[in-house]
Amino acid sequence: MALNNTYDARLVQQETAVGAGVQILVLALLGTAIGMGPAGWVTGLVFAVATWAVLSRALHRSGLRTFGPANRVTLGRATLVGGVTALVADSFVSAPPVSLLVGLTAVALLLDGVDGKVARRTGTSTALGARFDMEVDAFLILVLSVYVSMALGPWVLLIGAMRYAFVAAARVAPWLNAPLPPSTARKTVAAMQGICLLVAGADLLPYAGNFAVALLALALLLWSFGRDVIWLWRESRTTGGTEGTGADTAPAGKRSALELELELELAGR
C-alpha cells in the first residue's frame, strides 16, 4: 500500500511538471510569433516555475493520490494566464498584438466555469481544486488590471490588488477570518471583473467608454468587498471576535476568510 501511495504521489507531481513544460512551450510559440523580448520571457518563466513549485507543495501537503480532470482544466487555464502575463510584461517594452492578448484572456475566462462542471460531474471536487481555481482567477485579474492601468491610470490596479489586500488585512484583523455566507451577487461581481477588464483592454471603445467600464468594475468590487467586510464586522461584534480563533475551528483559524469560503464555494465548483 505504501508503495502504491508513493507511486500515485509521483504521478501527481509529474503532472505539475508537465504543466510547467507546456507553459514553456507556450512561451516559445509566443516568442516565435511576436518576437517577445527578455521581459516577457523572464516573467513567463518565473510564472511557470512559481506555479510548479507552489502547486507541487500544495499537492504534497494535501496528500491527493490523483490530480483529477478538473485540476487539469485549471492547470490549462493557468498556462493561458502565464501567456497573458508574459505578454503584459513585454508590453512595457513594446506593444503586444492586442488580438493575441485578448484571445488568450477570453479563452481563459471561458474555461473558468468548465473546471467546476468537470469536478461536479466526476465527483472530484476538493478544497485544493477550488483554491487553485480561485488563485488562477485572482492572478489573471491582477495581470489584466496592470495592463489596463497603462492606458487608464494606476487607479485600475485597485481592482487586481483588492483581493490580496483583503487577505493581508485578515492577518492583522482576525475577525476577517470568519467564513462568509454564499452569495450570488459576490460571484457575479467577481466574474464581471475579468469581462470588464477584457473589454477595456481590447480597446474597442473610445477612451471614455473604457474608463467607464473599468470604473464600473471597481465600483462593483468596492461594493461587494465593503458589504462583506461590514457583515464580518457585525458578526465579530455578535460573537465577541472569537469566530475562527477557537479550538473548535482550528485549523480554520490559521486560514484566511477566502480559504474558509472555499468550503462554501465547493458546492458551486
What does this structure look like?
This is CDP-alcohol phosphatidyltransferase family protein. It is an enzyme of class 2 (transferase). GO terms for molecular function: transferase activity. The structure is a single chain. The protein has helices at residues 2-34, 38-62, 69-90, 98-110, 114-122, 127-152, 157-172, 184-202, 207-239, 257-265. By secondary structure, the protein is mainly α. The protein folds into two domains: 1-125, no CATH class; 147-269, no CATH class. The two termini are 31 Å apart.
What structural class is derived from the secondary structure elements? mainly alpha
- Total strands: the figure is 0
Distance between the termini: 31 Å
Low-confidence region ranges = 243-269
Order of helices and strands: HHHHHHHHHH
Task: Output the number of helix runs.
Answer: 10
Strand proportion: under 5%
Mean pLDDT: 83
Radius of gyration: 19 Å
Taken from the alpha-carbon principal axes, the silhouette is: globular
Q: Helical residue percent?
A: over 70%
Main β-sheet description: none
Our count of domains comes out at 2
Task: Offer a quick outline of the entry.
With 269 residues, the chain is mainly alpha-helical. It has two domains: 1-125, no CATH class; 147-269, no CATH class.
Keyword list:
about 75% helix, membrane, transferase, about 0% strand, disordered C terminus, about 270 residues, CDP-alcohol phosphatidyltransferase family protein, transmembrane
